[in-house]
Write the structure tokens for this entry.
Amino acid sequence: MEVDLSEEIETKGGMWALEQKIDQPMDEEAGRLKNMYKEKKFSVILLLRLAFQSLGVVYGDLGTSPLYVFYNTFPKGIDDTEDVIGALSLIIYSLTLVPLIKYVFIVCRANDNGQGGTFALYSLLCRHAKVNTIPNQHRTDEDLTTYSRSTIHKQSFAAKTKRWLEAHAFKKNALLLVVLVGTCMVIGDGILTPAISVLSASGGIKIDHPRMSNDVVILVSVIILLGLFSLQHYGPDKVGWLFAPIVLLWFLLIGGIGIFNICKHDGGVLRAFSPVYIFRYFRRRGKSGWTSLGGIMLSITGTEALFADLAHFPVSAIQLAFTVVVFPCLLLAYCGQAAYLMKNKEHVSDAFYRSIPDAIYWPMFVVATLAAIVASQATISATFSIIKQANALGCFPRVKVVHTSKKFLGQIYVPDINWILMVLCIVVTVGFKNQSQIGNAYGTAVVVVMLVTTFLMILIMLLVWRCHWILVLIFTALSLMVECTYFSAVLFKVNQGGWVPLVIAGVFLLVMYIWHYGTVKRYEFEMHSKISMAWILGLGPSLGLVRVPGVGLVYTELASGVPHIFSHLITNLPAVHSVVVFVCVKYLPVYMVPEDERFLVKRIGPKNFHMFRIVARYGYKDLLKKDDKFEKKLFDNLFLFIRLESMMEGCSDSDEYSVYGSNQQTSRSMNDLRSSENDTFSSEVELIVAENGGSGKGSVSTEVDEAEFLMSCRAAGVVHIMGNTVVTARRGSRFYKKISIDYIYAFLRKICREHSVIFNVPHETLLNVGQVFYV
């Protein structure tokens, strides 16, 4: 088994063979259809309805970009109206190449059973290559219906890429670091999107009242943001039905206003569809034209949120909504603003509101504010979702996660993160006070996420899709040509607000990487210090102690073997429970695990030891809730296992246990063990080999007897035994390691949620076993 490679060197020969027999892998009872979660074919009416609903969830952020693009492109005003045509041409081709071609028609296809975002791509890669930094996967995990992956031929280019990735731990850590950088930038996006969207929408108040102070606009924005974040605990489900009509109305209005302005002011702006004007724009403006790309790039912000919010809708519905509604309306809106600026270039600072006809100005202001709120909600929800995914994959401290909807699994609320986002969002809004600097910060965050997505997509195309290397090269060249161009432009604006997402991402990256490092070291400690099954068997059925009535649930991160905390427990206490169950809760690189496939149960050792292992498997979208009755589900699956085991014993032959007799090498190893161990240990080995023929002395003879015994032990009391491992830097460690482990990681461990709270364990039934581990 892969997770045991670090210890197999020391346990070769008979001891290893015996442990594999006693603690044998857990197999599923039956195979299931592997493709049941693949995208289904929808009727035309259902597809149209889903496309309509996707507008409110997926496209709010991208749709509100016309509020601030031209102002951020020309923050110092427009010198030549031909520059407007050049900027419009850049916007048109940016929208065509990035959101339309790259994301909607290519990247969205790289979803993990409908889930999008950076961690979804990473999970997809973890299933096709052994790049997970916590190697807790087992071959039985691949039998899950949601664990879809394709086979790779050994001589293919994909196989070479896979071997290259798996060759060194450095490459795995580098891949994880890239994923974490993209994740942190998405979190920064969740701070900057509400700030710039709400501030830009609120700016419409000044058009009718030009003498109004900018502080009033900021105050209105802060009030809206306070209300938005304060209502997050209700979830979008209560008002979610309003999102799609609001965003559809918004797109129709900006598209209609765009047509009005093109007809009224200057229809000649349509010549911007010729890419020649891009070349003329750069030749005329030089370096200032290059740096203005930071503002142009804001026209494609929201594209990364489009992919992150993919979960609730099929790709076909998202493609339909974008090509039929979003893309045409955005083009018309930008063309309309450009036509207005051709005649009124002095109004570039508030071109959106100035270009609105007077008759519909205030209704449009209300719709713009509502659309900004919807856009903000989409990015906040995406941030909650990505924090949950990071938490599941061991890259973020355990925080409280609340389900806000009984209908939709993905609608969650993370209180701690919500208030952090609110404070930072208000600080950014009040601190900068204008769209230009926030726009520079926003652009930096977005372009880094796009670069990370491109890098991950290269690996997806090679490993998962197994595309020809020429196609991968074309995709890479076109993507990097556009995104590196934008990235070089935003670098010029780092000192003009672009530093904000870098600082925010740096803090979150530090927290996530240190937490993950501590998690990996704790897992390695569990692996290297786990107890040999031969040692447990040598203690006999009583484990060398008094077995008192009751059930002990020993929580561990190991999916195989006996954890060190158990030996620590039985060497320091004179008694142990009559039934011992090792409980492992692990998260897999899948978006969810069906409830009927969640638990794996097996017996450890002979029946009269009354020791079991239960592995509870979760996906990164699954959530442990207080009303899940985790303990009840554990016992339900344990009773079911006992019944199934009894049925299987009655109808199976003894060949399975006679393998040891037919294998000469194994027989010799077992003889060596018998000669080296005491009589008690030898009798237990014989009991295991002969288990099909009958029970040993003191063992439970029938399923009914064992079930009744288990019920009586459960009635006597259940104790939850959890390890409290303290991780400390070794003496002589470098100062940065001491700061990271002894202070930052220790602080994060102190403020994060305890496992006992997550599993809803009553305090009176909790027993913590302390350990100290030096790294």
